[in-house]
Each structure stands twice: as structure tokens, then as C-alpha cells.
Amino acid sequence: MFFLRVRLSYGIEDLAFRFGVSKGQVSKHFHNVLDIVYVKTKPLIKWPDRDVLRLTMPTSFRKFFKKCAVIIDCSEVFVERPSDLMARAQVWSNYKHHSTIKFLIGITPQGTISYISKCAGGRISDKEIVEQSSLVNYLLPGDVILADRGFTCQDHVGMYMAEIKMPPFTKGKKQLEKYDVDWSRELSLVRVNVERVIGVLKQKYTILQNILPVQYCEASTCGDTNVTVIDKIVHACCALVNLCPSIVSQD
């Protein structure tokens, strides 16, 4: 029942009809199993040791990005429109033109998901979600983050002696130097891996493509930490994706 919900995004009413039980029983079973999966899969999302990371660095990273620790991007999940006006403003995404919840995801050069932030309202910018997340707590001096142009948080990352690299801005420049062109091309080729991982995540766990109930944005107690239902769903789906073969060639 749980996997029919997260893998195939079957609705609560649909599952209740299929299994011949009430909607309340389906909902209770889903949340109980979700709590268990959330706790049991925590070890599957792990920030790797630097030595292990660099020892197993794919060939495509070794020329320009051998110090890469993580590749980051944001993804959004649709939610129902809240009735509260302030909450409605917080979850409205100008990019998606819909009420959404946004989360930051980071993958290793090897293609495994190594970081997920807490979910935030879709209104938050890429820069803000990085600054409010715990990502920098995992960085070591000299680490490099690869990101898209929206992540203009060099100062924040720089305080931890790390660096964020993005495609160069061409505004005000007639032409880029040859090295910058080659570097940008290589960056695009490796940075696209995080987009591919997000694509696999949503393809395998189609609940992340649906419009989720606004109640899933509410915090529910799990152990000693308050996490929302959406946080648990995202974490569980990401952890299970890490059990699949990597989309990055290890040659």
C-alpha cells in the first residue's frame, strides 16, 4: 500500500477501494509505514569522506573539478493552495506558477544523493535556501560546490573556506576566453547529472509529480525531531533512489 502511494501515486480513496478498507485506515497505515521508512533509510543518505570522494572521482571531473564535493540544485513539489493568505504567499512559486514546496538536493560526483535540505515554501530563492540550510556544515576548506547561476551565495560559502562554481555570466562581455568556453562546457556536462538524478527521482516515485495535500506541510513528531510529512516523503524517495545503479559513468 505504501509503495503504491509513493511509486504510482495512487490516491487515498483509490487505495481504500482496492483494499476494501476505510480512507482513515489507509491514511494511518501510510503514515505509520512512512515513519518507519524515514527512520530506517537515514543511513542511505550520507555525506562521504573527502578521501573516499576523491579516490573514486569519475574521470570526467578530474581535469577541471577534482575538488568537487557536491553538485546542487533545487526541485519543487506541487501542493494544494493553503486557505491562509500568508501561507499561500509563502508557497507560491513564480517559476512554476503554482503553490509548491522547494527543497535543495546535493549529489556526489559519483551520482549518489548526499544531501537533502528541509523543505521550504516555493517562494524562497535558490540563494536563500542554501543560506538557511545545513549544507555548509558538511563542507571542508578547499571544497568546491558546482551549481547553476541562481546560487549566488559565494560569500556565505566562502566563510567556510569553500567555493561555489557556476557558469560564467556573459553580461557586459562580447566574448568569453577560450578557457572559459571549455570550462563552461565541461561544467554543463557534469552539472547536468544532478538534473538527471532529480528526473530519475520523480520518474520512479511519481508521488513527487502530483499535487500533495496541504496538510503534508505540517510538522509531525518523529523521534526527537519535528519534520513535515513532505520532508519524510522526499527523504524516503531519495534514500531509495540511492539503492539504484548510479546514472554517472564511473570510468
UniProtKB/TrEMBL annotation:
Entry-linked InterPro entries: HARBI1_dom, Transposase_HTH_dom
Domain of life where this protein originates: Eukaryota
Domain DDE Tnp4: 72-242
Keywords: Metal-binding
One Pfam family here: DDE_Tnp_4
Cofactor(s) needed for function: a divalent metal cation
Name of this protein: DDE Tnp4 domain-containing protein
Domain Transposase Helix-turn-helix: residue ranges: 1-43
GO terms for MF: metal ion binding
